[in-house]
Amino acid sequence: MTKNTQQPVHDALFKQFLTHPENARDFFAVHLPANILPLCDLSTLRLEPASFVEHRLRQLHSDVLYSVQTTEGEGYIYCLIEHQSKPDRLMGFRLMHYAMSAIAHHLKKSPADKTLPLVVPFLFYQGSVCPYPYSMNWLDGFADPALAQQLYTRSFPLVDLSVLSDEEILTHKGVALLELVQKHIRTRDGLMAVLPIIAQIINSQHNTVDQVRSVIEYIAYQGYILDESRFFSQLIALSPEYKTMLTTIAEQLEQKGIEKGIEKGIEKGREEGIEVGIEKGRTEALIAMTRSLLQQGVDLNIIMQCTGLTREKIESLKH
């Protein structure tokens, strides 16, 4: 019998036993780590259906996946068993991948949960090479395990704009404009307050003309600016090199109906005229800005964040 025909037989026998909760309960009672076993109420052991794993990951899915309630109140621990007859140098990573997939699906299934479930990965090995030759610690799969441990067992780097001072942001060169504007974009007239710093960054020429244009359009259509005309006139005075661009954007604001929509609504004495004019202007302006960002190759997720448009709407503007 060839190896290719043997493997399905090994898998079938494995699943015949481990897919039965009674057998699985005995397995976990023996093999669960000593610090995890007391947390598991094995009487609640439940075999999870194949649909637990997302369709696109099913080719990588674990052989058997059980959920079990904890003995310390509400919560779940998942026990994942992978059957293997040939050693795999990156098995630790594969098990971690399966564990993360199980956690992600649990959160999708139970969005109200506030904490992550534990997933205990097992490798059930019965190959001819003895003992199993590779590490089960996924961090050992990296060229520098010590560095990987430092990175993946500590808090990840956080760039929190809310705690960065404007003075510190000013030293960030090519990303200073992005950081400063996004820090103040939601603050009432906050961009007007930092207008001199915006001009200083623009004049430093750390950014391309297209990047400056995109930021100014972002400010125009997403910023909380009480007097847009004053904002643009002062920015033009501080950054005369960009006068043509800034003037064009300011004119587009008016042409797109933001100002005209308000005036028309007041003249007619109809409040809805103001809202319709503003909404129409903002929509058309957002579409124009989105097309500009697409042409520059900006990532879709960034465009979604900047414009508030759906992925489907952005995709439709590609053509």
From TrEMBL:
<dbReference type="GO" id="GO:0006310">
    <property type="term" value="P:DNA recombination"/>
</dbReference>
<dbReference type="InterPro" id="IPR006842">
    <property type="entry name" value="Transposase_31"/>
</dbReference>
<dbReference type="InterPro" id="IPR010106">
    <property type="entry name" value="RpnA"/>
</dbReference>
<comment type="similarity">
    <text>Belongs to the Rpn/YhgA-like nuclease family.</text>
</comment>
<dbReference type="InterPro" id="IPR051699">
    <property type="entry name" value="Rpn/YhgA-like_nuclease"/>
</dbReference>
<dbReference type="GO" id="GO:1990238">
    <property type="term" value="F:double-stranded DNA endonuclease activity"/>
</dbReference>
<dbReference type="Pfam" id="PF04754">
    <property type="entry name" value="Transposase_31"/>
</dbReference>
<feature type="domain" description="Transposase (putative) YhgA-like">
    <location>
        <begin position="10"/>
        <end position="211"/>
    </location>
</feature>
<protein>
    <submittedName>
        <fullName>ISNCY family transposase</fullName>
    </submittedName>
</protein>
